[in-house]
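Continuing from the previous page...

OK, I double-checked the sequence for hydroxycinnamoyl-CoA:5-hydroxyanthranilate N-hydroxycinnamoyltransferase against my notes and this is the correct one:
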Amino acid sequence: MVAEAKQNGVATMAGSKAQLMSVKRREPTLVSPAEATPTGEQYYLSNLDQNIAVIVQTVYCFKCPSGRGNEGAADVLRDALARVLVHYHPLAGRLGISPEMKLTVECTGEGVPFVEAEAACDLALIGDLSTPDPAALGQLVYSVPGAKNILEMPPMTAQVTRFKCGGFSLGLAMNHCMFDGLGAMEFVNSWAEMARGATELTVPPFLDRSVLRPRDPPVISNPHYEFEEIADVSEMAALYGREELMYRSFCFDPDRLERVRGLALADGDLEKCTTFEALSGLVWRARTRALGLAPEQQTKLLFAVDGRRRFAPPLPKGYFGNGIVLTNALATAGDLLSAPVSRAAGKVQEAVRMVTDEYMRSAVDYFEATRARPSLASTLLITTWSRLAFNGADFGWGEPTMSGPVTLPEKEVILFLAHGKERKSINVLLGLPASAMDAFQELMDEI
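Thanks. Re-ran it with the corrected sequence; updated structure tokens here:
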């Protein structure tokens, strides 16, 4: 399925789907922890949490097995949420600013906004979630009306929507400062465990984020080009401003992924190469060509590396927070396009290798000293969800039949999503100006 969306809305096809869905929400209620939790204190967020305080919206869809309808779904999920919040109590608080002028969580215990809704259609209308569709899927996620910034938004909201066919969806809006993809997966799976009747969690959260406090004084021992501003000599801002943004999804099955890896290894420059390194290099190079960047245009690739096991000592199991660190690769457009895919894949490989305990500690200290946030000017940011197994999210109605993002958080973001029952394929989701998307499509058709 290919969906096309405008920057401030959706194209005709997506718009008609949004109208047919016709979701009616009830008034939100607050779900508080089922037992007393610490209140009146500030919960510490690490410097790795500070950099990515954006709202991530996801939807999980469930087809109810025969003999069990969706009538009780909202009650089961609400009760289980109250019980799992006893373990994840900061999610029941509200974001604030610490005396050090950093994001923190005020442990108020007031609860998570929870909404019940009904859709005047069947689940089948949604499609396969292979491409973000903010106008339609946005109806399945609750956003606080009138909120002007993240301080006016709770750390998370939940919406359960019942469909005419008997299925239902769970829509979540969660602030990335609360956890990364792995942490979010562990939370959702723990919530599902509670819904299935568990009294103890398989992976209890480790709440103390002070294990990632900066050094005193800060020690910046590595260059951190992820924060560097890049001049827009190719006038990309103007291109994005005058053309509609189109979203498309490109599926790479195992055979196609092997061809991509073969391209990266073809000229012998690389002795070995992972699928992620090869695919990231290919996509970075293809997007650069599709956008028509000037040869002298500096371009930056950012992607997150899971630092949990790379820290010394490793972060504790169940670490509740962001254990990811952004790494980077830099090249001019001319350098990328005049060389084979191996050049780009090699730069990705170097960026992965760069992430050591000292590099990550240096990144933590860099924010402490500068309060800088990564710049996305002339940047591609790849986010990888392909290793996240959300199939544990069985709330008692079976595993989700599909799940995915409502939208991409920034125009510079590309998402890698696992695809297929065996999760061996990767869907590449991205948005580009219309003319660039056509050029990108032609480059992908050649593979």
